[in-house]
Design brief:
CATH topology: Rossmann fold
Distance between the termini: 36 Å
CATH class: Alpha Beta
Bound molecules: nicotinamide-adenine-dinucleotide
Helix content: 40-55%
Strand order of the largest sheet: 3-2-1-4-5-6-7
Number of strands: 7
Structural class: alpha/beta
CATH superfamily: NAD(P)-binding Rossmann-like Domain
Number of domains: 1
Shape: globular
Number of helices: 8
Strand content: 5-15%
Length: about 280
């Protein structure tokens, strides 16, 4: 019987799809009780139903949350404590990449503000309301989802997204230092390109997919479950000496040497470097 999160309570944002969905399932199967938060009610409800059916127990609950609204995030934390007693783990994972996100000259202010509101302010709200709750629980772990683009520039422009993920890294580091003595850990998960709706909707042709894969040494997209396992490690007591990290789970992308032609390998496949 897996038990890496026995007696832990976790709040996961963006639980309805991709990385958040796989992490919700994995955490529950590892013994956690899980508050699944998402702005998409149907998707979030479906995840909770699936978890509770698979485990034959009411270990998951859905809360409709738009992470850019402070009152929603506050309510999710309240539900976690009311329903399950304590809160030990918060995975601030919800994020968007707007289809009109572009370069410095062409990105609309509305797209910029929306991206920052969800990807940065949403993570801050998650931390802001998690901290007192985790303190009440005696300590715990916060994981904020950034991206490899926070440490590597993306030549296919998505300036608001990339900037937002850089902010998540900076926020996470400072929080880690400030709250280290309180036994509250903060780490930033930095996924490489992952086969989820967020990326596959963006790389919507085979050519675009192949162009992206040129930069991934392992030669394939990551799977959401591979991020979930990394989040599980960061959430569990196996990582109690790890805080303030940029935790790269990227198939070697950030370690790769990118030639001016855009290839990390000796293959003759050329393309623009781009990221999420
Ligand atoms: P996804 O689109 O599959 O899932 C995102 C989920 O977040 C959806 O269920 C969506 O409804 C929810 N969401 C969106 N806006 C929200 C809001 N305002 N409030 C609450 N929920 C909201 O995406 P994913 O690929 O699983 O991405 C999860 C995180 O991982 C994001 O922060 C993303 O930026 C990051 N990331 C993804 C990749 C990738 O390649 N897929 C790479 C690096 C980082």
């Amino acid at each position: 019987m897996p038990n890496r999160l026995t007696n832990k309570v976790a709040l996961i944002t963006g639980a309805g799809s991709g990385i958040g969905l796989e992490t919700s399932l994995l955490f529950a199967h590892e013994g956690a009780r899980v508050v699944c938060a998402d702005v998409n009610q149907d998707a979030g409800t479906a995840v909770v139903k699936r978890i509770n059916e698979e485990l034959k127990s009411e270990v998951a609950v859905f809360v409709k949350v738009d992470v850019s609204r402070e009152s929603d995030v506050k309510e999710a934390v309240r539900v976690a404590e009311e329903r399950f007693g304590k809160l030990h783990i918060v995975f601030n994972n919800a994020g968007i990449m707007h289809p009109s996100d572009d370069n410095a000259e062409t990105t609309d202010e509305k797209v910029w503000d929306l991206t920052m509101n969800i990807n940065v302010k949403g993570v801050w709200f998650g931390c802001k309301h998690a901290i007192p709750a985790i303190r009440r629980a005696g300590g715990g772990s916060v994981i904020n989802t950034a991206s490899f683009v926070a440490v590597r520039g993306a030549a296919t422009p998505q300036l608001a997204y990339t900037t937002s993920k850089g902010a998540v890294l900076a926020m996470t580091r400072e929080l880690a230092v400030i709250h280290a003595r309180e036994n509250i850990r903060f780490n930033a998960l930095c996924p490489g390109p992952i086969r989820t709706p967020l990326l596959m909707n963006f790389l919507n042709t085979e050519e675009k997919k192949q162009r992206r894969l040129v930069h991934v040494p392992v030669g394939r997209f990551g799977e959401a479950i591979e991020q979930a396992y990394a989040a599980l490690f960061l959430a569990s007591d196996e990582s109690t000496f790890i805080t303030g990290t940029d935790f790269l789970v990227d198939g070697g992308l950030s370690a790769a040497y990118v030639t001016p032609e855009g290839s990390t390998t000796t293959h003759s496949v050329h393309g623009n470097y781009s990221g999420v």
